[in-house]
Amino acid sequence: MMDIDLQPDSRIPDGFFEFPLPVERILYEAEQPIVYLTKTKQGQEMLAYLADEADGHQFIVVAPATPSSISRLESGSIGIREALTDTWMWIVRANLAQGVSEAWSVTEADIPALHLPKPGTPLRSEHRIAFSARAVGDGIALGSVPCSVIAFVANAAKSSLKAILDHALAANAEGRPTDAQRALYDLPVRQLKFASFEVGLAAPKQDLFPNDAVLQAVGDLRTGLEWAEDIQSDEALEAGDDAKTEAILRATLALTPPSHGVITSVEVGGYWLKGHRFTLTRKSRSKVANRLRQLKEQEIVVLSGRIGEIDDDKLSFTLRDVEGENGGERRGSFPEELLDDMRSHYFEENRIQISGLIRAGKLRVTAVVQSHHEQGTQPQ
Amino acid sequence: MIFDLALPAGCPKADVGEFEGTAYRLVRTDPPTGKDLLTYLELDLLPAADACKRASISLFSTFDQAQHRLEISPHLGRFVACLSLTTAHGRVGKPSSSGHIDWWPYKGMRNPADLKVVG
Hints:
Chain A is built from eight helices and 17 strands. In chain A, strand 14 (316-322) and strand 15 form a beta hairpin. In chain A, 26% of the residues lie in helices and 30% in strands. Chain B is α+β, with helices and mostly antiparallel strands. In chain B, a hairpin with a 7-residue loop joins strand 5 and strand 6. The chains are: A alpha+beta, B alpha+beta.
């Protein structure tokens, strides 16, 4: 039975509650109503939470309920515990054999932690925070969160999930993401906390993606977070193959604090990470970046030729009549911001020079200009 | 088929069928023990509840729903275990909006070794 010290001087006079407490509306039901709306004999609506049932007694936490607080609870804006502890609380002990309900005034601290919902737990499972990122730093406080911090946290969460999920789902990481891909890593924001800026994301709709693949990807990310958090260990991260290791490192790197600025650490949590909260510091960032550098071998190239084919959707192209390669061709990809330039050069059949990076045999263009002379430049 | 517990007449209802698939159970220990598969009736809980429901074992349709239940009532256990149900395991009710389902096991089919902790 719940270990709670119910003192006589905290006892609420009889006459407020029926036995059993009337269930006006069920908000969460498992084997029986667990969270529901009840009312006092005087007709005041109360939020009720079944905290324990043992030895012929039910312990029910009741708290004032307003249409606004219930609406926020049902929409997932606040958790069950927060709704219960927002103002004042009573605990009702219902003696099932004697058929009486007695009430005591209690505080959150009086109730054993296991007999209250975990902080932030919403009413519906689909409202749970799947993944959260929180920026921590001296200059980050309620009312003075710099805009750049908000942008960083939102982008960090999105970029990290994109890196790991694209790999896990074998998605084409180049070109414009499909609507389904975007739905997966551009998850709906479920919660924003401004005290130290935190963004909480809801899980994607399950019918869009195989849930086990998403969980596997998140499990891989957890591996990276654990590794990055442990700055004492100099063991290299190995995740089977280089592509997977790189995806994990990129996903993890996105969640580390920048080398400069107000953000000194980032806390990553959510139920996807099994409730564990990881803290990544600038040392974590160095560790991840160093490992990523070890893993990557890339070459800067400058090529001259003309665009023979272009795919607007995949943001890919074929460079033909490549100078110094016996008129051969190279396939490559380019970022979306170069699309207009690449299209113009293609339609105008311009001879161009591109610079880019070749990694694992794949060319990724970083800049393109029209070539004003016949002789281009080969890789330097 | 014979059920593992003596059930009230008409329990489970005729429209409650057998089930094949994965379900999730809140458990206190890893590995789970026989105590993790007791009914409310055996635990002497929910005295006012429907007698048929009291003789069932609570399961959840998905891992997320089971984990959510654990977050709402942390005293119920420490882990979520999965269980691969076959038609030989018994009769299983339809899930509620929270994903809660009732399982009335056939005789000898309450085996803690079938539970594997997954979270």
